[in-house]
Each structure stands twice: as C-alpha cells, then as structure tokens.
C-alpha cells in the first residue's frame, strides 16, 4: 500500500521520535511518504489561502491515481474500525494508493474543501499540525492491525 501525507511545514524536532516510532512500525506494510509544503503565512487571509491551496494542488496533480482524503475538522468522524474499512476498501478496490491532505494553519477555503468528497475528522477540536501527523500515523498503523486481525497493544 502506498500512502502519501501532504502537509505544511517541517515536523518539529520534539515530535520526530514518536513520528519515527510509528513510521518504523508501518514500514513492513506501507510505503509512506511525507510531502511537506512551505506554508504562506503573511498577508491577507484570502491571499494566503490561495497561495497555500495552489501549492498543494500542484503536488496533488502528480497524485491523480491516488484517492485523496482531506482531513477536515467539520467532516464526519469515524471510529478506528471505520477508518480501517476505508483503508481496506482502498487497498482492495482502488489500487492501494491514498493521499491524506492536512491543511495549513489558516485552513482551506470553502471552495477548496468542496472539491473533495472524501473527508475525515479527528474531532471538533483544533490540533497542531505536528500532532495531527502523529495521530494520522497511529490510526494508519491501528488500521493495518485491525485489517490483519492482529492485536494492538493498548
């Protein structure tokens, strides 16, 4: 299975140990690539959103054969089992290619969000982008364990 995580900015050093922990656990089951994009932060909100959306859209154009899943705070929430079913359905029916999209700090415009049918929320709270990456990796790992019917140490 090929998974890309598209996100803004570099992972802070404080998060790297746990990020690498889950990356190491996934290496035998998933080919995972982190695609980091420099976030535009200065200027008018609409201009910043346009710049950030343009930058990520360029990266997504190279991933047209991937299923795109936008992490969106207002999307419906899923259980770990539902998340695993989504991963398994992609693996079985859609070529085993998923691109998860984590937005910039100011979020995406309504127009950008409407382009994506596949959306996922980890809850209504705002989380730092570094932590979202960790949560996403953990849920991918948990999904693999669920799909393989293997125990997950809690």
UniProtKB/TrEMBL annotation:
Domain of life per record: Bacteria
A Pfam family reported for this protein in Swiss-Prot or TrEMBL: SPOUT_MTase
GO cellular component, one term: cytoplasm
Example of a GO MF term: rRNA (pseudouridine-N3-)-methyltransferase activity
Secretion signal, residue range per the UniProt entry: none
Keyword list, A-Z: Cytoplasm, Methyltransferase, rRNA processing, S-adenosyl-L-methionine, Transferase
InterPro entries, per database record: Alpha/beta_knot_MTases, RlmH-like, tRNA_m1G_MTases_N
Enzyme Commission designation: 2.1.1.177
Top-tier EC class: transferase
Location(s) in or outside the cell: Cytoplasm
Keyword Calcium applies: no
Biological role: Specifically methylates the pseudouridine at position 1915 (m3Psi1915) in 23S rRNA.
Subunit and interaction comment: Homodimer.
Name under which the protein is recorded: Ribosomal RNA large subunit methyltransferase H
Organism in which the protein naturally occurs: Spiroplasma helicoides
Name of the gene: rlmH
């Amino acid at each position: 299975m090929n998974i890309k995580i598209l996100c803004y900015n570099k992972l802070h050093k404080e998060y790297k140990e746990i990020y690498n922990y889950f990356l190491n656990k996934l290496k035998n089951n998933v080919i995972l690539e982190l695609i980091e994009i420099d976030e535009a932060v200065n200027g008018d909100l609409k201009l910043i959103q346009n710049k950030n959306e343009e930058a990520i859209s360029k990266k997504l154009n190279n991933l047209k054969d991937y299923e795109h899943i936008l992490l969106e705070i207002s999307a419906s929430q899923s259980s770990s089992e539902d998340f695993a079913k989504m991963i398994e359905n992609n693996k079985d029916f859609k070529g085993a290619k998923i691109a998860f999209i984590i937005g910039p700090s100011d979020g995406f415009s309504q127009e950008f969000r409407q382009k994506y049918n596949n959306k996922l929320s980890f809850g209504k709270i705002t989380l730092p982008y570094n932590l979202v990456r960790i949560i996403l990796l953990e849920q991918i790992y948990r999904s693999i364990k669920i799909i393989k019917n293997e125990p997950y140490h809690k």
